[in-house]
Amino acid sequence: MLMVKKYTKIFVKSIYFNKNLLYSAIYEKKLSQRILMNYLEKKIKLLIRTGVTFFVALAVIPVVATASSTIKMSYNGPADLKDNAVHYFATTFKDIVEKKTAGNLKIALYPNSQLGSEEQRMEQVMNGPMINVASFDGMQTVFPQMFASNAPFMFNSYKAAHIFFDNSSFMKKAIKKLHSITGIEMLEVVEDGGFLDFTSNKLIKSPADFKGLKFRAMDVSQVAMYESFGASGVPIPWTGVYVALKTGVADGQMNPPTYIIIGSLYGVQKYLTLANVQYSNQFLLVNGAFLDSLDKKEQKIIRDAAHVANAKTRKFVEEQVTTRIKFLEDKGMKANTPNEEEMNSFRKLAVPAYSNWLSKKVDQSWIDLALSDAKKANLEAK
């Protein structure tokens, strides 16, 4: 312990004398020395315990020196309180933390992926004091097991999804495993726009209606699902979806009503199939060593703020679902909801296709546990 404190002090002092770090976080008084010292002690103890020399330790943690006392929080999407649920969450979280700590902890928001790609931001949150709201695209780089919670038609309702992500055995196991692998702590699963629904220029009520169509796919898992319906999946980035639908490169796509509105897809799509395909969510992640370096009161404030902000975001999202569907109908889209028999026909094809795709990436036990817990959540939510 004395060695850790000694070398931590040496490292902190070196910041002042290193020309390249002259305007470091400590020098500018943006990061309290107490928080920095606690963080470094935990990082160095971990590295020494695992056999890494102190000089190697210095090489992997200089990011701390340039960290702001204001905790950086990065996420996708615009700074739009009306249409971006993640920005609504981040703003609410920021307000609570700053109020409860009387400004001792500040949250600096970086929307629109300003701090880098999903992969880059995952690296940042693993290596320094930062908060990141990651999508499945980000999670796949370090923890593909989380994809087991994203099988098509997994949840029958918002309540079932909440039960699963708040209390399931799968989530408890996933949170623990993620931390052991990466040092990242997952605080909340943030609701992002509601359930994904199909849009197309052809009425879709069952898998048979997909035959021969081309659907925009967000990732390979969606390609597998569309192919199980007899369609083809076409990988297209979000920025190209509108043009692809307008020009016929793709015949349809799926997104929550929020994103259908944001992308003005109602202008190039006639039908909206309310099939609750997948629950749209992202993951609130924080560097575990940094969180532990805060005092107990500050840690509790951050955890509580995340929970309260998520509850408010869920209410915000779900209260607008009906309004947004009505908006799309007013724009000319025709909405339909598949009956239970039709929904079962979707599940029968999509779930095995998705599971087969994922089983090549993660152990089958993760998939089995997620599907089992989802089934329990659906029953409990009735």
From TrEMBL:
Keywords: Membrane, Signal, Transmembrane, Transmembrane helix. Pfam families: DctP. The keyword Transmembrane helix applies. One of its GO terms (biological process) is transmembrane transport. GO terms for molecular function: carbohydrate binding. InterPro entries: DctP_fam, TRAP_DctP_sf. The chain crosses the membrane at residues 46-65. This is Extracellular solute-binding protein, family 7. It comes from Arcobacter nitrofigilis (strain ATCC 33309 / DSM 7299 / CCUG 15893 / LMG 7604 / NCTC 12251 / CI).
